[in-house]
Design goal:
About 75% of the residues lie in helices and about 0% in strands. With about 170 residues, it is mostly helical. The chain starts with a helix and ends with a helix.
């Protein structure tokens, strides 16, 4: 860990090679999607590298990585559920019938909502996800990101307005 903290790429590669494949299999069991699992594990390693100088691991690196990957998988699953709930809400609120057998566009709608969220500016998107997926209050988000609560509130307003504009075709009456 000390070598990693000092930016030793070889130490990072050793840790990557030692756990990457096992972590992908673990994440795949949680997400049931190998592509997503690989992305989550890669993102976790990227986070480790970016935060290496300040990262404090008080137990084994292996245990830390499994917990970090598990948490990211759970966040991914929560995000997927939020998107599905939003799509269901849009469909229930704006379709004249509740005959869901005719809703062949559900996956396309989920993709559009996810794309709209991903199209937000980085800070906006981060604040939106912390608020909506991790259910943090503005004050908690402000503290975590080192921002003022007013900035968080403004960024959420911007995010919601951009999402409303991006998805207005889904909200228009049929």
């Amino acid at each position: 860990m000390e070598r990693l903290r000092n930016g030793d790429m070889q130490a990072f590669e050793v840790l990557f090679k030692a756990y990457y494949e096992k972590l992908c299999l673990f994440a795949n069991r949680l997400t049931d999607d190998l592509h997503v699992a690989e992305e989550i594990v890669a993102d976790t390693y990227a986070f480790i590298w970016e935060k290496r100088e300040t990262l404090l691991i008080s137990y084994s690196f292996r245990a830390y990585m499994y917990r970090a990957v598990q948490n990211r998988c759970l966040n991914h699953l929560k995000h997927r559920n939020v998107v599905r709930e939003y799509v269901d809400h849009v469909l229930q609120a704006h379709l004249p019938t509740h005959d869901y057998q005719d809703l062949v566009r559900e996956e396309e709608l989920e993709r559009e909502v996810a794309e709209a969220i991903e199209s937000l500016p980085e800070k906006c998107r981060e604040i939106f996800k912390l608020s909506r997926y991790q259910h943090l209050r503005y004050s908690e988000i402000a503290r975590q990101l080192g921002l003022s609560p007013k900035t968080v509130e403004r960024q959420m307003s911007i995010a919601l307005e951009k999402l409303r504009r991006h998805l207005k075709h889904l909200l228009a009456p049929a």
